[in-house]
Each structure stands twice: as C-alpha cells, then as structure tokens.
Amino acid sequence: MQCDYFDAGVCGSCTLMGVPYGSQVAAKETTSRTHVDAPGLTWLPPVTSAEAAFRNKAKMVVGGTLDAPTLGILDAQGHGVDLQGCGLYPASLRAAFPVLARFVTLARLQPYDVPARSGELKHVLVTQSPDGELMVRFVLRSTEALARIRKHLPWLLGELPGLRVVTVNVLPEHKAALEGEREIVLTADDTLRMSVDGLDLHLRPQSFFQTNTDVAAALYRQASAWADEAAPRTVWDLYCGVGGFALHLARPGRAVTGIELSAEAIESARATAAAAGLRDVRFEPGDATAFALGSDEVPDLVVVNPPRRGIGAELAGWLERSGVPRVLYSSCHAPSLGRDLAAMPSLRPVRGRVLDMFPQTGHFEVLVELVRD
Asked: In the chain, which segments carry CATH 3.40.50.150?
C-alpha cells in the first residue's frame, strides 16, 4: 500500500507502511509463535486482509478553524492534520468526510484547540456497516451547540442518504480520551445494523465492534467451527462486547451466556438476540472475573476476548482450577496472552490462528484453542 501522507511525513500511524504485506503477516506469525508455544500446537494458515480500505470506523480528531476544519490527527504541537483521503477507509466512507467537514462549518461547531484548551468539537466518529449505512457521533465539550446541530441535521441527512444514527457525545474534560459517558441520540434510530455472516448485529453508539468487518467474520467462523467440533452444551462468552462470539456460537439446545462491563454493548447484544429469535442466549452486564468467581457452575466452553492487558491473574487462576474442559482465547496482544497461558498450565494450547485485523501496523488478533490435559 502506498500512502501520500506517510511519504510526506505528516502521518506515521501506520508503522509498517512500505513493508511488503507478506512480510508483515509473517512477522505477526513469528510474534504469536514466540509467545504461544506448546508441544503439539498446530498453527493454521493466517487469515489475511485487504491491504487498504478495510476499516469500518474512522476516529477523526477535529482541528483547524470553523471555516477550514481538519479531520484526522493532531501534530506534535497539537494542531490539526487533515487525513480525509486516508487509504485505510473504503471510498464510500471517505466520501462522507467532506460532507461532515461542511457540516462543522454550517452548524458552527468550533474545533477544539488543544494547546489553548478552547473550542467545542473534539472528534467526529464515523462507523460504516457492510451495507453502507452510517453512524456519526460528534464528541463535544458541552451541549452548547446542540440546538444548532438539531437545526441543521436535516441538511446532513439529505447529503448522506445512508446516515442512520447521529449522536452527540459529551466529553467536558481536557484529557486524552475518545469519548465521554453521556450520549444524546438525535435520530429515530439508535443502533446501526452490522451484517456479519448473515447475522445482523445491532451496534449502539458506545458499543465496541472490531475495526475490520471481513476479518471479524473470519474470527467468528473459526471460533464457531472449533466450538461445534467440541459440541458444548453450555458456553460462557466473557468480555462479550456486542455478542459477536456468543451469537455466532449459539445453537438450539446450547445455553450461551455473555458477560460484558459495558451496558451499551449488552443492550446491543440483547437486541440482536431478540431480532434473531435466539432463545438460549442471555447477556448480562458485569465484570467477567467477578462473574466467574461468583458462579457455582462450570460451563463446557469458555470464550475470552479481553482488552490488551489480558484476562489477568484472577480469572486465569479460576480457569486453571475450575476444571473447565475447553477455552477459546481471542487476543489482540500476544505478550499478555503468553502471560495468561503460563498461569493456566493445565489448559494446553492445541490450535492457533493469526488473523490480521490491522494491516500496516504491528497489531493483530490471534485465536487459540485450549484443552485441559
């Protein structure tokens, strides 16, 4: 992939830009094998991605001025760098950026000036579904501009016919955060339908979804295939997010429970389960570790998909002593995965697969199947 922004030195976010894609994937496999090693472990061929135009979500920092806003990143001095032509986004998503920039001017949404700590609009977050529908979130310091956004919203909806969900997120603090806790929905719809392998996931504004839809679908297919071979009657999906694993593993007669700290994500998962008519799936908000430690039951299969820090010593310790026969561990950080596996020596890695969710960077997903000796 060639990138004018990278070549000009204005954006270095893609740390592997210019490295042949085959070499990128090979390095990620090497990293995985270094941190996950066990006798008899079989590595399946990696799941590769399109090298460009694969991202379904844009997290655009807003800079510049009212009349000439930038959507992209900030430079070392805190000034806006416009990246509306970034090749990581499909053309259909990039087409929305100039419209959103015009809306910033039309609704008089003063870009936030980080060095001066003044202004209102911090970020514009855009998510695109596989069907081309959009969710747009304006992250503001206050609700001062809310009336103007409502006034000009019909214009925005007219310019972007695929726009389904528009919200204002309020983040008053001066801190390096993407969003705040308060979300104000401005459209009739409050969820974006993300179709993944025939299952419509209902994504709410503050719900997490994998950045690369095609590779996420491959991840869920692989987990489902391994689970179906084991034919568990009970499954826990810990750190379930919007329920991607749980919903794809659901089968008649298989009781699936999803646990996630984010109440927004749980509402998304419940909406998907209800729309799909999945009766044996339940989702509850809560801490994954506390749920496991507080339960009197041990399922046939546990799926864990934690953040980069991993599942930690407490949950790893419970999995080790619980007697659970099988675990599917989906990790976005091989070192923390390796640490967690070392704390669960009775659960032996038997199969693994690298899934390149983030081309042009050193990040990736790895799925490992663990079976109790």
From this structure: 4-51+209-372
